[in-house]
Amino acid sequence: MLIRRHTVLVLAVLLLLSGCKKLFRKRGAPDAGALSVTTKTVPTTTSSSGGLDDADPTLAKGFSLHTIDCATGNLIACNDLGIDYQEGRGTTKDYSAAVDNYKKACDGKIASGCSNLGAMYSDGHGVPKDEKTATGLYKTGCDGGSNLGCNNLGMNYRDGLGGLPKDDAKAAGLFTKACDHDYASACTNLGYMYSKGLGVRKDGYRAVTLYEKACDNDDGQGCHNLGVRYANGDSVPQSTKKAATLYKKACDKGSSDGCVNLGAILEDGDSATPKDTLEAARLYQKGCDGGTMSGCSNLARLYENGTGVTRDPAKAKGLYKKACDDGDSSACTSYATLARKGY
User: Fold this and answer.
1) 271 in a domain, yes or no?
2) Are residues 243 and 135 in the same domain?
3) Rounded to two decimals, what is the model's pTM?
4) What is the total count of domains within the chain?
5) Which of 14, 126, 188, 226 gets the most CB atoms within 10 Å of its CB?
6) C-alpha closest to that of 317 among 302, 298, 304
């Protein structure tokens, strides 16, 4: 099954820059079919460029069956048809059609349809962006048994969005509800709450257990956060080798932060992990493309110095600009330095 917009709190170590920790918000894929959701896939980017998947006859067949079944009153099929339109699965991507089908499902008391519709309002896909409407839909979805709805409602309580007061205790309770039903991204979010003592008593060991549960269920950000723990020796034995393994799994599962941190390890290398600057550059690019700006800055530095890649100050300047525009002050300084040199 696929799950939509499982916004995740990510504890990221920006290696090779400042060693500091930063909070990221990530999104996943749509919430499919039945009320109980236990599996997911996470794309590398917030919204994949997609296009047509109808070259795959099975996806095209699925779209055809969902269309027929929805037309005959199968509201779960309407939700699945919404996912088809949203992701361009067996058909042309069409956010407006996705919204129409999610609304049919939600109006018919399909909790997943309400949660998915809420995500469309959060993202402004096919409808005007409206976090307050999204919040109401997440609540309806959560009350109806959608783990996605509970997770996203928890995020809005944590951040005080959609007309809700900021309430870490309520957020933690909602993450707990979804995690108890094996919704992996909610386990990652709950782990973060325990790691910082937000709405719960601070407990690093509990955070590790939750990240392990999330990672075992293929949540890339859970693997990444667990990797951070091993890199820092925080409530677990310090192990760069173990961190690298977890970052690789995180990267493979769509965590751009995992890609960047793995790249940082490979750029330096150690006795357990051979140095590989070319692979580090590839991972920084993947992280940058996925929205982790430290990947852009790290890759810019490699191009500026010609480390593992052909020296290209102009390309470095463009990457520093991207990171600077996103709020990385050190990237702004590096951009200005190259600009003064005439690049």
Assistant:
1) no
2) yes
3) 0.84
4) 2
5) 188
6) 304
Is 145 within 8 Å of 131 (Cβ atoms)?
Answer: no
Contact 30, 83 (CB under 8 A): yes
Distance of CA 88 to the CA centre of its chain: 19
* CATH code for position 330: 1.25.40.10
**Residue recorded with tokens 């950000």:** 221
My answer on whether 71 and 17 are in the same domain is yes
Q: Quick one: CA torsion of 283, 288, 291, 292, rounded to 10 degrees?
A: 70
Nearest to 31 by CA among 105, 88, 97, 100: 105
- Quick one: tokens of 305? 């110095």
- Across the strands, what pairs with 23? 11
- Per DSSP, the residues of 189-223 read HHHHHHHHTSSS---HHHHHHHHHHHHHTT-HHHH
Per-residue pLDDT of the chain (343 residues; tens, 9 = 90+): 333 444 445 454 444 333 333 333 333 345 654 322 222 222 222 222 234 444 689 999 999 999 999 999 999 999 999 999 999 999 999 999 999 999 999 999 999 999 999 999 999 999 999 999 999 999 999 999 999 999 999 999 999 999 999 999 999 999 999 999 999 999 999 999 999 999 999 999 999 999 999 999 999 999 999 999 999 999 999 999 999 999 999 999 999 999 999 999 999 998 889 999 999 999 999 999 999 999 999 999 999 999 999 999 999 999 999 999 999 999 999 999 999 999 9
8 Å CB contact between 36 and 250: no
Distance of alpha carbon 85 from alpha carbon 220, whole angstroms: 25
